[in-house]
Design goal:
This protein has a two-stranded antiparallel ribbon with strand order 1-2. It starts with a helix and ends in a 5-residue tail after the last helix. It has 14 helices and 2 strands. It is mainly α. The chain has helices at 3-19, 26-51, 60-74, 82-104, 109-129, 147-170, 173-183, 185-190, 195-221, 226-230, 232-245, 252-271, 275-291, 310-320; strands spanning 139-140, 223-224. The protein has a single domain (3-320), classed as ABC transporter involved in vitamin B12 uptake, BtuC.
């Protein structure tokens, strides 16, 4: 019966968000759309970084794959409808995750983090020189200026992302397997868990969900370039959002994602640029590590609950022992 309060809260939030366009203007609706996107992206990163315990510094690669799949197929000589491009981006992200996940998921800690960062940087440089991607000049998409469409599309994607996360990682045997390998991979293997397969499945799922938001983002903004969808700052923000909200928690990515995105927009409205926002990201990391290791979500849970020190455990793996567990 403990699951019902969370399910009820999720339903109430979704209903409130569905009614939001009735009460705000187009500008604030666009802000809300961005907040939803970052909450969804943070959740996708939390699957591999929080639930599985593999700190991924190259997650922007999958966001970019989804964005470029939609941009390439909707523009130029292809002229595909948006809905037809999304599955292509998802499949492409899953295939790439499977290919790079095989070797990189054999690594742990800093080695995995560096390997994923290197892959994302390699993809960024590749996109810069390919003609089909428009190189550094980027690609334009057919304009579609219905903010309600993008808001509800993003809301549906977020609902799907959190629904899948809840079912797979909070209420299924697969979720217990993922958490078991996070807490002690060798022990999980001794219990008969195929850790290689479980890790790869979690990695591919996180990649697919990131690509979903990349596809929607590309159509929403109508123009993308390598930096806007493959830049390292995209992954950085996902990581900080999850750390702030609560690493490995269900609600944490939503709390951290919405909070930091709104701070970003408030700074932009008041100062005209987001340079100060970078300083806030750095300060947020320091404050979370020192004073709030459980994140914002930890303020609403009992102390002493298993997994409360997950951030410190992850940092120890990242800094102290970079090889296999």
């Amino acid at each position: 019966m403990k699951r019902w309060p969370s399910i009820l809260l999720l339903v109430v939030i979704l209903v409130a968000l569905a009614l939001l366009p009735q009460f705000v203007n187009a500008y604030w609706l666009r802000i809300a759309t961005g907040a939803l996107m970052w909450a969804g992206l943070a959740c996708s990163w939390n699957i591999i970084g929080g639930y599985a315990g593999y700190i991924d510094f190259g997650h922007s690669a999958f966001f970019g794959i989804g964005a470029y799949a939609t941009a390439i197929l909707m523009g130029g000589s292809f002229g595909w409808p948006f809905a037809a491009t999304v599955p292509v981006g998802l499949v492409a992200a899953a295939l790439v995750a499977a290919v790079i996940g095989g070797p990189t998921l054999r690594l742990r800690g800093a080695y995995f983090a560096i390997a994923t960062w290197a892959f994302a940087e390699m993809l960024l440089q590749l996109v810069n020189v390919l003609e089909i991607t428009g190189g550094t000049g980027g690609l334009s998409l057919p304009p579609f200026l219905d903010e309600n469409f993008f808001y509800f599309t993003m809301l549906a994607a977020v609902a799907l992302t959190y629904g899948v996360t809840w079912l797979l990682f909070e209420r299924s045997r697969f979720g217990y397997k993922v958490k078991a390998l996070r807490d002690h991979e060798a022990a999980a293997e001794s219990m008969g868990i195929n850790t290689s397969l479980v890790k790869l499945q979690a990695f591919a799922l996180s990649a697919v969900l990131a690509a979903l938001f990349g596809s929607i983002f590309a159509y929403w903004v109508t123009f993308i370039n390598p930096k806007s969808v493959l830049g390292g700052d995209i992954t950085d923000q996902m990581v900080v959002m999850v750390l702030l909200g609560g690493l490995g928690s269900f609600w944490g990515p939503a709390l951290g994602g919405v909070a930091l995105f709104l701070i970003n927009r408030l700074i932009w409205m008041n100062f005209g640029d987001t340079a100060f926002y970078i300083a806030i990201l750095g300060a947020a990391i320091i404050l979370v590590v020192l004073f709030l290791p459980e994140g914002i979500a930890g303020l609403f849970t009992r102390r002493g609950k298993p997994g409360n020190s997950l951030l410190r455990q992850s940092l120890a793996r990242l800094v102290g022992r970079g090889g296999r567990a």
